[in-house]
Amino acid sequence: MVATSIWQMLAEHPEFLAMLTIPPVTAFVTWLHVWMALKMLFYPIKFWGLRIPNFPFFGLPGLGWQGIVPRKAGKISGVIVDQTLSKLGSLEEFFQAMEPEQMAAFITDTVDKNLEPLIDEIMLEHSGALWGSLPYALKRRIYTQAHQELPDIMQSLVTDMTYHVEDLVDMRQMIVNKMESDRRLMVNMFLRVGQHEINFIWHISALIGLIFGIIQMFIFLVVPQHWTVPFFAAIWGLLTNWIAIWMVFNPVEPRFISYIKVFERCDGFPFIKLRLPHVAQFRFQGGFMKRQEEVSEVFAEIVVNDLVTLENIMNEMMYGDRSAQTRELMKSHLYQILESPVVRTTLRMGLGRREYGQLKNTIINKSITATMVPLRDPELNESRASKIFGLFRDRIRALSPYEFQNLLRPAFREDEMTLIVLGGLTGFLAGWLHLVLVFFPAVQ
């Protein structure tokens, strides 16, 4: 028999025992270097090593390493926004789904409780002598006027912000800024979305390594040259990383393959049970795309709790690149308080035209700070997140497989060749070490 002849040929080989170590060693080394490559994809979050000015390799600041994902957080998050999030809907649509009328009421209640101390703070900071000399009855009239006008002003302001949110907030820049300022968030996002695929790549690599090890054992039988051990170990290292990543994302579109099914899996021992033979279909598709429904839940949760949040939107609106436009919009609403006869007459007579104009800017600055306090409230943000969670989840589920893969694909694509080459290098080193420790002593 052929199998018996092959086994006899192997058994008679002078380096038989050393050859038998090739498959298990290749499997273990492959499993280990893939684990290392995946860790290097995400860690360390911050650069670890010796910083060298104008260091020319891999975009690193020196001799050391920083995970590919945290190092390129801005670029990768920009790709995710452009290729996926931008297709889920407009920022105005998401903001409206948060029910701005309820947000305005919440902000009004919070600001109204501290309105009088806020007015005192503004006036004492700007013109303490004037405010200290005003009769309390006059101050009381100003307080009352502000309390009366605040609800209408906040409702109209929030409504106006809702309809102009696309002009006031750049969603792409908002998410990129968030990811660059909190690179751990970016790493955690990829790990939560793709942990299943990361584990698959890691574990399947051992099986692939074992298969390649068996092939290499027979190559050594035909070509009994020691150089083949590290050489093919490097080849297998390259191929393993490439195949494992390819299996996660390919094929993108599902392909259904018919086959005869004679058993099915079950929970208890013996874990399979026979069935009457029947034609079934196997869905051949990249592992990540197969999990679109499951991943949609996880990614939607991340988006509404960490990225497209009320606090992030308003923070970008108030302090981002377009904050000047926000200030102009706020002026058109907040200045209504100053235009009431009692407030305008009192302050203009006491301050003069120039100081009165400067007071307006102070009011805007203090109002922005006061407004952001309730907007950072965890309860408010959690309630707004629940309003848009279903919207994001359903739209992520509705993405095409090509669009959906871009939730995870950019993390691997960004430096995919680095991971593949790294597999080759570690494979070569492991093969050389295997040669020195096992084959050379066997020859002696």
Automatic annotation (TrEMBL):
Transmembrane segments annotated in the record for this chain: 16-38, 200-223, 229-249, 419-443
Protein name: DUF445 domain-containing protein
Source organism of the structure: Psychrobacter saeujeotis
Keywords: Membrane, Transmembrane, Transmembrane helix
Lineage top rank: taxon: Bacteria
Extent of the signal sequence: none
